[in-house]
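Hi, here's the filled form for the chain we discussed.

Project: internal
Contact: R.S.
Residues: 241
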Amino acid sequence: MTHKIPKLSDPQKEIQVANSARESWRVFEIMAEFVSATETLASIQPAVALFGSARTPVDHPYYALAERVSRLLSDAGFSVVSGGGPGIMEASNKGAFAGKSPAVGLNIKLPHEQAANPYQDVSHSFQHFFARKVMFVKSASAYVVMPGGFGTLDELFEALTLVQTGKIRRIPIVLMVNEFWAPLLDWFKTTLVRDKMINADDLALIQVLDHPETVVQYIFDHYATRGFEPSPAEKALELNL
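And the returned structure, exactly as it came back:
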């Protein structure tokens, strides 16, 4: 039995053409989003991006930890960039807002959960997740990742993949709260490395640190022999993200 794709009627063709035109114009919307974000974030360097759950309550130890490390990073001269929402993101912005350097929020428009927190010196809203993720990568000299859910894991694995594949320079990627991340890291070792899905030395891309002071020092140590600004070659790499 042969199957044939049915021919479109004239009204269906008109709808198809209209949808195609809308998709083409969407490309310009995305371009405008990148241009606007690039201009907004041009003056925040050096910066550290901090990620974590939007669902963490204010009285949780993770909230206090995120606020503390962000305050130290801010006082050390780093702009601190978060997703701009509640939970760990709010704690991060709050800590940086009280410090010497800008608290930056890269907000995303969502049907639920995300609402901009009030602790932002620099704020920019995105319609598209992928555009927001690119700007996190382009703006950050380091990633600090607190406990979180799918969104946090998405940002973590994005950074690991880009560094592993050489699409961006190697930056410090720090996980905070060892007991939260230990099961995942054990799975990396016992399954991913064992089955040769990753190389054993890929695990060195991640550093687990529990103390805010140690996080700040680790980032400075990483850049001890070079500047925080990407080299011309590294900037060229970023153009191919």
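Let me know if anything looks off before we file it.
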